[in-house]
Amino acid sequence: MTTAVHALRYLQPSALRPHRLDLATSGGATPHGAADHPRFFTGALRHPDAAAAALLAVADVAATRYHRPTGAASLDPVVTADGDRLRFESFSGCGGVHARLDVLPEGLDGAATGHGTTNVDVNAPLREALRLRAPGERLQLAVGAEEMAVAVGTDTLVERKVPLPARWLKGFAETQVLTARFDPRADLAAAEAVRFLRTLPATGRGTVRWVVPAGPGLRPTSRPGPGAICLPGPERLAALRPLLRHATALRIYAPPGTPDGPTASAWELALPGGRLTLTLSPDSSRGFSGEGGLLDLLAAPAAADGDVDALAALLAWDQRIEPADLAEDSGLTPDRVRTALAHLATSGQIGYDLAEAAHFHRRLPYESGRAEDRNPRLRSARALLAADAVGPAAGDVRVVTVGDHAHHVRIAADGAALGCTCRWWARHRGGRGPCSHVLAVRMTTDGQAQR
Fold it and tell me: What is the CATH number of the domain that holds 10?
């Protein structure tokens, strides 16, 4: 797994000061370009107890490995300001849990919220201070540290080298395409939500549970069936426990239809002034970075660099990304818009808000490379095309030759690939996206030339 080490430079450590929470930011992207220490919001949190506990939960998820917990993975959460709200996001150290805290307009009281994305420093002393703060104590929030921008000899610059796995960028890309296909499946009132969440284990070994909406609550079921919702690794919802006294509802999102095996699901805890959503991968041992949900779109022939640049310029930090509006403004077809958005997603620029049923814009402050650099299967498929490894169709089968091996890809009448004889397909059956052989066949069927 590729890991880039980024030096995050903070003017001062984040800290809980009397009646004020200062979250120091590293370099970030804003509508006016890159900024060393951007400021996005200054004001008060209207529900300080719930907000402080939820921010701790996001930081705790970033520091936790639910699969093979042999060590912490302390990474700085990402914060995005959308003009009227703040979003704090992190992935677990194992990459299989995505946490996002949305502090909504009704949860903020202060100057107008800005636009932009950066890292925030949630360090160990700050976590301890947030845990020990007095209940009900007023809490001001300052995201940024511009007041420290003047260089003075006594100022202390805090630099930390933080390993940023490539799976974080891929995880952001995969979770948005995955959750965009989810439907609301259950909505529990506060009492039922608390009752259900308290029955879940705090630790475990990645077992998969199934639940079915029943009246005002949920009842367990032993296997997938009509109406069943997958709860993969229930111990991964432990981050919600400290928030139960603040919960006003629990909403669950999952793929539509009857599942035939474990699936991802999203668990949204509604809070005063905000909501915390945990999205769980289909298995505790499975990170989001390898789901492969974007591969078909990335391989589409309309994914031209000009399309991507045109859409990047049009996003403009909008609170909601409307593909139909982007198509009209850019002059691109809806299919080309979807494909270009997929490429933007690979650099973390697109997120999906289940409660709003809409995409949103974020721009991570990390260098973004070509989509192939973060998708080995796409890179392998292009190499197969370059080597002319895809043979002609013979009935409903196309042969892909890799060295001394011949892989048989079965195709439907419309040219869609249905399966492959390779080891990857035998193991995942398409559940983690297409293999490189299927991708190459689809690209050939679409008539896509090598880039």
Answer: 3.10.150
Per-residue CA distances from 128 to 21, 59, 131, 132, 349 (Å): 13, 12, 5, 6, 32
What is the spatial distance between Cα 291 and Cα 417, in angstroms, rounded to a whole number? Answer: 18
Beta carbons within 8 Å of 153's beta carbon, 6+ residues apart: none
- Do 22 and 128 reside in the same domain of the chain? yes
> Averaged in consecutive runs of 10 residues, what is the pLDDT profile of the chain (451 residues)?
63 81 81 77 92 93 79 73 90 92 94 84 85 88 59 51 70 88 96 95 83 93 90 94 96 92 94 97 82 70 68 76 86 84 80 92 66 74 89 85 88 72 84 85 66 38
Residue 359 in domain: no
Final residue of a domain: which of 163, 184, 217? Answer: 163
pTM: 0.84
List the one residue out of 20, 139, 142 whose CA is nearest residue 81: 142
Q: CB of 408 within 8 A of CB of 421? A: yes
Instruction: Indicate if 315 and 225 belong to the same structural domain.
Output: no
Strand arrangement, sheet containing 229-232: 217-221, 208-214, 229-232
Helices (H), 206-322: 295-298, 305-315
Range of the domain at 41: 3-163
Do 159 and 110 share a structural domain? yes
What is the chain's length? 451
